[in-house]
Write a structure and sequence with these properties.
- There is one protein chain.
- This protein is mostly helical and 138 residues long.
- It has one domain.
- It contains seven helices and no strands.
- It has helices at residues 7-15, 26-39, 42-59, 72-85, 90-95, 110-113, 116-120.
């Protein structure tokens, strides 16, 4: 996340379409999930973040398709992992071992997680079961 933006400012910039493409980092994704979960439960956060991330990507020229942009499985994983981390600060979120950049690869093989099926819809882990029930809006 940018050293110049506070978590609140980053979230507001993201939600209102003012966050630059290069500012949309893993840390920014986690911040957006965490700040959203402060405002609503996971079942509401999922469609909200799905729409917000897709809109952000369109605004910065990132295609949302089978190989690029919004990733459903990763978004559901991080919403659920943040919710279950029960962190009270962003520093706790960023330090949690289930929320690292490659944490999902403990549960999914890279090929499965990066597949178009996982990007376009929920795909259950192929390596080990998640320790919690995944958030769903189905």
């Amino acid at each position: 996340m940018s050293a110049t933006l506070s978590p609140d400012d980053m979230y507001e910039a993201f939600i209102h379409g003012r966050l630059a493409k290069n500012e949309w980092t893993h840390e920014a994704h986690l911040t957006a999930c965490w700040k959203t979960l402060e405002k609503m439960p996971p079942v509401e956060a999922l469609p909200f973040l799905r729409e917000s991330i897709t809109t952000h990507n369109c605004g910065v020229g990132t295609a949302n398709n089978a190989t690029s942009g919004y990733h459903e499985t990763i978004t559901r994983y991080f919403i659920t992992a943040i919710h279950n981390a029960d962190a009270t600060t962003l520093d706790e979120v960023l330090a949690d071992p289930t929320l690292g950049r490659d944490s999902a690869l403990r549960y999914w093989s890279r090929d499965v997680l990066m597949s178009s099926q996982a990007r376009l819809g929920w795909l259950a882990p192929d390596l080990i079961e998640l320790p919690w029930s995944i958030v769903s809006d189905d």
